Amino acid sequence: MPPHKINLVEAADQKIKKVFNPHIAGDVNDAQVKIAKFGDVFDWHAHDNEDEAFLVLRGRIAIDFRDGTVELGSGEFIVVPRAVEHRPRSLSEEPVVLMFEPATTLNTGNAKSDLTVADLKALT
């Protein structure tokens, strides 16, 4: 049987009920493709040992850095290098964002809070 395809935005709308609650869209070697809806503002954090990539599928987001902000819209992509402190936030209502990172990456990195999700659910 061939692999199945998925419409990521439709699946996110159906399955993801809370903002900043990443789900696993797929596994690629030792990495995971994760998807989330973003809310008003996330925690300041860094990933000491992992780079983190963001691809906006719908809407607009900002990623704040201590020395400035980068705004991203649909189809735009950024890689946040390891150990760089950052804080994602939405600029539109519940944007849908794809993230690429090692499977062991914790969403809040080195900052533990109420937004930390250690046990991710699969999108499908």
Automatic annotation (TrEMBL):
The keyword Isomerase applies. It comes from the Bacteria. GO terms for molecular function: isomerase activity. Pfam families: Cupin_2 (PF07883). Keywords: Isomerase. InterPro entries: Cupin_2, PKS_Associated_Protein, RmlC-like_jellyroll, RmlC_Cupin_sf. Residues 39-99 form the Cupin type-2 domain. PANTHER family: 16.7 KDA PROTEIN IN WHIE LOCUS. This is Mannose-6-phosphate isomerase. It comes from Mesorhizobium wenxiniae.
